[in-house]
Amino acid sequence: MENTHNLKLFIVDDDQFCSSMYERYLKNHHYSDITIFSNGTECLNALHLKPDIIFLDHNMEDLNGFEVLKKIKRYDPNIYVIMVSAQQSIDTAVDTLKYGTFDYLVKGNDVCEKMKETIEKIVSIRQEMAQNKFKTIRRFFLFLF
Fold first, then answer.
1. What is the 8-class DSSP label of residue 46?
2. Contact between 30 and 23 (Cβ < 8 Å)
3. What is the pLDDT of residues 61-78, one digit of tens each?
């Protein structure tokens, strides 16, 4: 079982209050490897740190979330990106999903809980993928011998 507390999380939001609130909530739920960025450029410059999950604000000053998302996915398509936005536009949500976000969360009173639930979904998916990979490798070796 994967230790969820070892996940490397990035929070990218130009609203310092929001990013601090997300960080505090996640740390209270035992996620400790969290890095905050106040703009998309800082996040992109730190991708070499190999984050597992990036929570990305949609509306930012330097680069908007869409532009940052595209660059993240070009760098490493396996990074889980969750777009977080005050916009409740279905079209925006669908567009971000088309470009590779794992989920689209609307900022509101329950956004922190949704962030935690999304992390739990990702962990569950990664565990399932690891088990399937192990089963495939095991079948291969059984076939050889």
1. T
2. no
3. 888 899 999 999 999 999
